[in-house]
Amino acid sequence: MDIKGKAIEMESMIEYQKDSVVSMEVIKKELGTVTLFAFDQGQGLSEHSAPFDAMVQIIDGEAEITLAGEGHTVKKGEMLIMPANIPHALQAVKGPYKMILTMIKSD
């Protein structure tokens, strides 16, 4: 799907799937990516770290994000920047949620 130059409602670009995490790369460049995710309730990404800062924007529902062992509830319309090399995990605790993950591979 070519979306360049078109106004698109991001939330409708990706659908929930039962008991799954769904992802779709919107932009993939050498210097970074923009990826949509849809997490069904109870689904998540286990603790990991990335070599670059990453920004999470919640576009539906709310996420429980653990950053360096500290929990954060991030709701629709909110964002959280996850610093490089800091362990983090994401979980759909109170229901499903959708997010945009933007990672810029630069210092």
UniProtKB/TrEMBL annotation:
Domain Cupin type-2 intervals: 37-94
UniProt superkingdom: Archaea
Pfam families reported in the protein's UniProt record: Cupin_2
InterPro entries: Cupin_2, RmlC-like_jellyroll, RmlC_Cupin_sf
PANTHER family from the UniProt entry: SLR8022 PROTEIN (PTHR37694)
Biological source species: Methanobrevibacter olleyae
Protein name listed in UniProt: Cupin 2 domain-containing protein
